[in-house]
Write a structure and sequence with these properties.
Blueprint lengths: L9 H13 L36 H5 L9 H5 L8 H7 L10 H7 L3 E8 L6 H11 L5 H13 L15 H6 L6 E6 L3 E7 L7 H8 L4 E7 L4 H6 L4 H11 L4 E7 L10 H17 L4 H4 E5 L25 H7 L12 E9 L3 E6 L5 E2 L3 E5 L3 E10 L2 E3 L1 E2 L4 E7 L11 E3 L7 E11 L8 E2 L3 E6 L2 E13 L14 E2 L4 E13 L11 E6 L2 E10 L8
Parallel strand pairs: 1-3, 1-4, 4-5, 5-6
Antiparallel strand pairs: 2-3, 7-8, 7-15, 8-14, 9-13, 10-11, 10-15, 11-12, 11-14, 16-21, 16-23, 17-20, 18-19, 18-22, 19-21, 22-23
Length: 545
Amino acid sequence: MSEFGRNLPTQEIEEDIKALQLESYEDSAMDISEDGGPCKDVNRDNADGGDFVMVKAVDAMRESLGNPDAMDKDQASTVNSVAGGHDQHNEAVGVEAKESYHPDDVEGSLRKRHLNAVFIGHVDAGKSTIGGQTLFLSGQVDERTIQKYEKEAKDKSRESWYMAYIMDTNEEERVKGKTVEVGRAHFETETTRFTILDAPGHKSYVPNMISGASQADIGVLVISARKGEFETGYEKGGQTREHVQLAKTLGVSKLIVVVNKMDEPTVKWAKERFDEIKLKMEAFLKSSGYNVKKDVQFLPISGLLGTNMKTRADPSICPWWDGKCLFEVLDSIEVTMRDPSGPIRMPIIDKFKDMGTVVMGKIESGTITDGDNLLIMPNKVQVKVVAIFCDEDKVRRAGPGENLRVRVSGIEEEDIVTGFVLCSIARPIPAVSEFVALLQILELVDNAIFCAGYKAVLHIHAVVEECEIVELMQQIDPKTKKPMKRKPLFVKQGACVVCRVQVNNLICIEKFSDFAQLGRFTLRTEGRTVAVGKVTDIPNSSDHM
C-alpha cells in the first residue's frame, strides 16, 4: 500500500476543516465551483439496496429528445416527464431534435447564463406546487393544461394539489401527494435559463434528493408557514434540517428560503409568523455553514396562488413586505462561473442508444465541441463527439453548467455505467479504488463506533458505491482544529477525522482542492446520512488502473 497522505501538514488540515461545512462559500478559497453530478443506482452486486433507490435522472432531458411535432399541445406545454423503464423509454424516444442550425442561432440560444435550481425542504412544504406555479407563470404551461389538472385533482378530492401535478407526473406521486423522483423542468427569465430540480421531501427518498442537490447551482428551501408544519420539519428528525446540511455539503452555496403557505387560514400573511421562522432558520443556517447575510435570502410567498412569485405581493395582501419577488431574486442571484477553458469533466448520469451511443450529463468544467476526441473514464475508452444537444437544440459547442446529451462513437452503450466521466485525453480524471478524505461524523446509527472496517454507501457526483473505512489516520481536535498526536482507533459522533476510504470498483474523483464539485461526498447507511466529507488526497491513479 502506498504511503500517500499519511503525513498531512497541519496548515492544510486546518484549511480543509474550514472548507468542510464549517465556513460559508466566500470563506472557503477552495470552494471554487458549487456543483456536483446526480446520484443514481449503478446496480453494483454488493450495494446496499436501501440507498440505491432509482431516481428520475433523465426525465425532461429525454422528453426534449422527442419530436415536437408528434406531441399534443398538453404534452408540449408540460416540460416534465416520467422516468420509467429505461429500455422501453429508449425505444420510444428519438434524439433528432433540431438538426439544422446556424452558428448565430446557437450563440443566441446559449447567450443567457444557465443555472440549476433545486427545490428542497420537508415533505408537504409545497415544493412541487411552487415548481408547477413557476412553470405556469413563466408561460411553460398553458391554461388548458391547468384546467385539466384541476379537474383531475378535484376528482381525487385533492383540489389543492393540481399545481403539483405539473411536476409530479406519475400516478404514484399524484395518488400519494408525495414526490418520489427528482422532477426536472425548464423555464427562462430575461437574463437566465433555469432548470428546476424538484427533490422529494420524504426521508425515504433522501438518496433521490441528493441526486438533485448535487446537480444544483442554487437551492430554494421551501418552508411551510402553517402552524405545526414548520415545527415538524425543523425539529430533530425533520427533513428541513437534513436537507440544509446535505445541500451545503453538496455545494449549494446560495440559498433562497421561501416561507410558503402564507395565505393559509392559520397564518393570514402574519409578519409575526414570518419573523419567527426567519429567526429560527437563520440560527440553524449559520450553524450549518451558511453566511446568512451574503448567501441566504428570505421571502414570503403563496405557491398555490402565485403571490409574490412573478410579481411583487400587492400591499393590500402583504402590506409589511417591500422586498423582491421570487423571480427577481432568482434573476439577481450571483454564482461563481466555472472555467470554460479548463479540462473537460462531464459525469455521466445516463446513457442510451439512438443512432449511436448517447450519454447525458452536466459539464462541470471545460467546453465540449462537435468533433472532439475525448476519453471515457475509468475504462479508458477514446470516443469522438458526433453531436451535442442542449435542451431541444443541436449545438456546435457547449460550456460548463450546461445539461447535455452527447452522441459519441467508439463505445457501446452497455460498456458505460452511471458515474463514468467524459473527460479530456490530455488531462484525464483520476480513476482510483482508494483515497484519503477528511470526514465530519454527523450521526451514527444506534450510537455505533466509527472505526476501521466501517462500511457505508458513498455518494460522490454521479457515483453511488459501497465503501469501507480501512484506516483512521488522524483525528482533529475540535478546539484547536489541529490534528491530534495520537492515532485514533475509533471516533464517535461529532468527530472530525482524516481517514483512508476504499471502494470495490474504480471510481473517478478529484481532490477537493483541485476540483471541488468532484471531490465532495456523503456517506449513508440504513437510510441516514452518517458523515460528510471531501477528498484530500488520492494516489497516483496509474497505480490503480
